[in-house]
Amino acid sequence: MSSDHSSVEGEGSEDGEQCNHIQTTLLIQLVDAASVWRAAICCGGSIPIVANDEKRFENLTVDDGPTTSPPVVLRWDLPSGKAIRKLTLPPIFKDAAETVAIKELLKDCSPATFGKDGEEVLDKEYREALKLDNDQFSTNFSPHDVGIVDAIAQTLLPSIARSFDDGDTKFREHLGVAAELYKLNIYSGPSGKFRAHVDTPRGATQFGSLVVCLPNPHEGGQLRVKHQGHEHKWDWSNEKQTKSSGQHSTATASTKSWRFKAATGSR
What we know:
Number of strands: 19
Oligomer: single chain
Radius of gyration: 19 Å
Shape: globular
Helix content: 10-25%
Strand order of the largest sheet: 2-17-13-1-11-9-5
Largest sheet: 7 strands, antiparallel
Distance between the termini: 6 Å
Order of helices and strands: EHEEEHEEEEEEHHEEEEEEHEEE
């Protein structure tokens, strides 16, 4: 599972201070709207995995079926730094090399920490997971290419975007969202989990967290998001889905989330 942080960008401004003002205003509006449930605080969906789909970019400007993604390829550095490994998802379990690659990935990861009171904390009773930092791995999967970032902008931002008091409409016209690769997190059965928490913001313009569940079969490990008494749960453990689709969800920074225990497999 890979996690990206979503941030707001004010584009087209010639004045850096005006750009910062736009970003600050938007974030204030987002917090205000979410606090009284005027805005959506989460969204999600699935991306079909299709090999050798040469026409997947032909109809991006029209509503002509779902956008697809090629199989997801992960490459990561060995701890020694002297070599790299490769894994393709969904895995082909008839191929022993794919099974070995998953085991090697787990071995090459380090324990995942979490932010608390401005510090990184390692506590397996609260969070049990493995991770690679973004300078330790790369992937061919881009949330921009498959329309996830556009969906975030259309779903989470329109309900809170307002023009300035002086009537400046450039605020609406140049609003943009950028997703930055942050970490590869892995929750493995039978004990991988992350108890209730609010994600620690990693930048002044971050307004939420994008979670992409890569297509690897598993059971358990549901993701639950809750805010102001409203709750949504994503269950990505369906065997058919995890073999054919990549799943994603985005929640704003004010929400509380849980990752339930993974029963079997790795998510």
